[in-house]
């Protein structure tokens, strides 16, 4: 397990990127995007920010394959939760209620 | 727990290596931490049992003459919360698992001894907060915290209880993490994956569920608290939310959680069946992989709790189908245990009686799960006593029996003393009879339409009352069956016959070291050269006591 030393410069840049993301989210809240796009925009920014945190602040970028496997498994499980839950919302109105 | 052993000087085993309260509260020895958990879990089991007694007494008569409906609501809620979160989930992993996993793989301790101790403190913190909530006024939402009742209408201590459970969740996560890292990195030389006892495999699978599932229930409970405090609207249709979303999130954890409760029990039973049959388990790899299959498939079936909750019919069909697939790995285990018994030289010691009881009762519990997973049948029996009977057959008939059996089986190793075998067998029988008398009538009650969570029922339905009386009578017998071991185990700590290192004459690593083991578990690091359940061929038989025993194979 070799420790990777991250330059403070990188942390500062990531921090600024995260603040930028926060600013964008606030800004986007003032616009009313058509249809479901409001949520899509906010969630996209949030996901990008989370990715930065995981990769840099949590050092995953510099870690071995086992750590990557753990992260991917966790995301896969999250995907299972979302996918099957949405299978309910998606098909709820298929059956006409009489 | 400290009064176990008498020698005056610091001695040679983990129990007398150090003295004093501090040596226990600051210990990093996995075996001592297991005993700390054992004490705490026994306490919570006692609290949960008191609530169960109140429920059974109330249902003795059709009228609500013992308590008001609001008190009754709190009683069954608190019974469920204490039993599920503070007894069943940690029971086997945190006590037997903690004690035995390092010993079974030939390690000195878990990978992170301090985190192990931390997990006990977190468990205690969660437990104390929950007890506070129960004493301050209690909670009445059911252990499932369904919204909108829990977020909007309940006037009880929902948030305080939620905080207790939230905190407690971290102790499970830490235990799971510790087990996974330990099993990956600390196996003794020669202890390959397929030489590990099945107890270790099933704990590995359990740990995966703990790590992947527990954060979800923590977040869900947090959302309930936020909704209650700040009305954020996520579960409220008026604000664009959806109450059924709560059920999705809750059961995404809580169905896998039922496997957190039963997988370790299956691990114990695999040990009991193989060792007391003196045979290698039939289809070792199938049993090992079925644990992983249960862990994975268990995450895909949660919607069978939502069949009548306005979930889409199509999602219901998928969940119904997937629920049937989980039955396959469970059945693999049951069949393989049974095949192991075939033509074996079985000894019917107390632990084995519990193990055999598990097989029968778990099968009934699992099969009635199939009834419930059938969409049309579930519409009829959902939220009735049929469901109550189903999960008690698995949780009590399965997990509790395996826990009791395992505790008896490893008691000589844990305490260094033998328990009285005659009392052991007698109480195992009492538990079995009491259990069935308690819960079998509930299947009938549920099928006839008795809803769960009601404290009254129609006076005219005499047959209902007869069944309820039987059930309460059974619960009393079960209670006696559980008190006997409590008494004789405590008695045996002082007066029991001193146990040898390997009283059952078994090949497992945990038996190849003194009883009780030294703090570092093994005097020299073991080198493993044989499979998990390798017994010598029949010509090496030796007669010990009443039983014919086989010697473990030479290693
Ligand atoms: C193996 C261990 C199992 C445990 C510990 C367990 C436990 C439980 C619990 C606690 C509930 C009631 C939840 C509630 O409403 O409060 C329940 C209900 C249910 N169980 Fe199981 N179960 C197990 C196995 C199974 C299996 C194998 C199946 C089917 C594949 C199954 C199907 C169901 C269904 C469909 C319900 C919902 C009934 C309803 O409320 O309408 N269970 N189970
Ligand atoms: Cu379930």
Give an overview of the whole structure.
The complex is a heterodimer of chains A (98) and B (555). Chain A has helices at residues 8-29, 37-57, 65-91. Chain A folds into two domains: 1-62; 64-93. Chain A has three helices and no strands. The mean pLDDT of chain A is 89. Chain A is mainly alpha-helical and 98 residues long. Chain B has 555 residues and is an all-alpha fold. Chain B has a single domain (29-549), classed as Cytochrome c oxidase-like, subunit I domain (Cytochrome C Oxidase, Chain A, Up-down Bundle), CATH 1.20.210.10. Chain B has helices at 21-25, 30-58, 69-104, 113-136, 149-153, 158-185, 198-230, 243-277, 284-297, 313-341, 350-373, 375-381, 385-415, 421-448, 462-495, and strands at 541-544, 547-550. Chain B has a two-stranded antiparallel sheet with strand order 1-2. The longest helix of chain B has 36 residues, at 69-104. At the A-B interface, helix 3 of A face helix 8 and helix 10 of B. Bound molecules: protoporphyrin IX containing FE and copper (II) ion. Residues 144, 258, 261-262, 304-305, 323, 326-327, 330, 366, 369-370, 372-373, 378, 382-383, 387, 390-391, 394-395 of chain B line the site of protoporphyrin IX containing FE (HEM). Copper (II) ion is lined by residues 255, 258, 304-305 of chain B.
What's the helix and strand layout?
The complex is a heterodimer of chains A (98) and B (555).
Chain A (H helix, E strand, L loop, with lengths): L7 H22 L7 H21 L7 H27 L7
Helix pairs in contact in A: 1-2
Chain B lengths: L20 H5 L4 H29 L10 H36 L8 H24 L12 H5 L4 H28 L12 H33 L12 H35 L6 H14 L15 H29 L8 H24 L1 H7 L3 H31 L5 H28 L13 H34 L45 E4 L2 E4 L5
The site of copper (II) ion has 4 residues of chain B, from helix 8.
Fill in the keyword field for this structure.
heterodimer; A: 98 residues; mainly alpha; 2 domains; B: 555 residues; Cytochrome C Oxidase, Chain A; two-stranded antiparallel sheet; 15 helices; globular; binds protoporphyrin IX containing FE; binds copper (II) ion
């Amino acid at each position: 397990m070799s420790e990777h030393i991250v330059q403070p410069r990188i942390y500062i840049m990531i921090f600024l990127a995260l603040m930028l993301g926060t600013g964008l989210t606030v800004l986007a809240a003032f616009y009313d995007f058509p249809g479901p796009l409001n949520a899509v925009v906010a969630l996209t920014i949030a996901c990008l920010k989370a990715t930065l945190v995981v990769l840099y602040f949590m050092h995953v970028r510099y870690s071995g394959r086992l750590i990557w496997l753990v992260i991917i498994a966790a995301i896969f499980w999250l995907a299972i939760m979302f996918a099957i839950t949405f299978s309910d919302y998606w098909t709820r109105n298929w059956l006409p209620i009489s | 727990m400290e009064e176990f052993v008498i020698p005056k000087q610091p001695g040679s085993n983990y129990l007398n290596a150090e003295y004093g309260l501090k040596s226990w509260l600051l210990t990093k020895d996995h075996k001592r931490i297991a005993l700390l958990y054992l004490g705490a879990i026994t306490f919570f089991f006692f609290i949960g049992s008191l609530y169960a007694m109140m429920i059974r007494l109330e249902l003795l008569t059709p009228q609500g003459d013992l308590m008001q409906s609001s008190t009754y609501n709190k009683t069954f809620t608190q019974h469920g919360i204490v039993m599920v979160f503070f007894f069943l989930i940690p029971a086997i992993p945190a006590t037997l698992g903690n004690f035995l996993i390092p010993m079974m793989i030939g390690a000195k301790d878990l990978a992170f001894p301090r985190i192990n101790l931390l997990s006990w403190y977190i468990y205690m913190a969660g437990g104390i907060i929950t007890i506070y909530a129960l004493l301050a006024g209690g909670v009445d939402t059911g252990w499932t915290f369904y919204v909108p009742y829990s977020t909007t209408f309940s006037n009880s201590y929902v948030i305080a209880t939620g905080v207790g459970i939230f905190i407690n969740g971290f102790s499970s996560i830490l235990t799971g993490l510790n087990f996974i890292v330990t099993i990956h990195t600390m196996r003794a030389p020669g202890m390959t994956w397929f030489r590990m006892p099945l107890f270790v495999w099933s704990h590995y699978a359990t740990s995966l569920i703990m790590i992947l599932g527990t954060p979800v229930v923590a977040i869900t409970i947090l959302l309930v608290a936020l909704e209650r405090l700040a009305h954020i609207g996520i579960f409220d249709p008026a604000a664009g939310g959806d109450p059924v979303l709560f059920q999705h999130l809750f059961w995404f954890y809580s169905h896998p959680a039922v496997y957190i409760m039963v997988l370790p029990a299956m691990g114990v039973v695999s040990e009991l069946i193989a060792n007391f049959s003196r045979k290698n388990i039939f289809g070792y790899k199938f049993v090992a992989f079925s644990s992983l299959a249960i862990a994975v498939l268990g995450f895909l079936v949660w919607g069978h709790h939502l069949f009548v909750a306005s979930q889409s019919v199509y999602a219901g069909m998928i969940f119904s189908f997937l629920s049937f697939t989980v039955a396959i790995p469970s059945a693999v285990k049951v069949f393989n245990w049974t095949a192991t018994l075939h033509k074996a030289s079985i000894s019917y010691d107390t632990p084995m009686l519990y193990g055999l009881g598990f097989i029968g009762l778990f099968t009934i519990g699992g099969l009635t799960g199939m009834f419930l997973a059938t969409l049309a049948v579930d519409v009829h029996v959902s939220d009735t006593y049929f469901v109550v009977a189903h999960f008690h057959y698995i949780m009590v008939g399965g997990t509790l029996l395996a826990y009791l059996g395992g505790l008896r089986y490893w008691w000589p190793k844990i305490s260094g003393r033998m328990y009285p075998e005659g009392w052991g067998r007698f109480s195992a029988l009492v538990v079995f009879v009491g259990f069935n008398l308690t819960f079998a009538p509930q299947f009938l009650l549920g099928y006839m339409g008795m809803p769960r969570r009601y404290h009254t029922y129609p006076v005219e339905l005499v047959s209902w009352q007869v069944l309820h009386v039987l059930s309460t009578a059974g619960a009393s017998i079960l209670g006696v069956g559980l008190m006997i071991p409590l008494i004789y185990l405590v008695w045996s700590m002082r007066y029991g016959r001193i146990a040898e290192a390997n009283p059952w004459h078994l090949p497992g690593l945990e038996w190849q070291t003194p009883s009780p083991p030294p703090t570092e578990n093994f005097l020299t690091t073991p080198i493993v050269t044989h499979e998990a359940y390798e017994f010598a061929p029949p010509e090496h038989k030796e007669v010990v006591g009443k039983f014919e025993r086989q010697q473990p194979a030479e290693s």
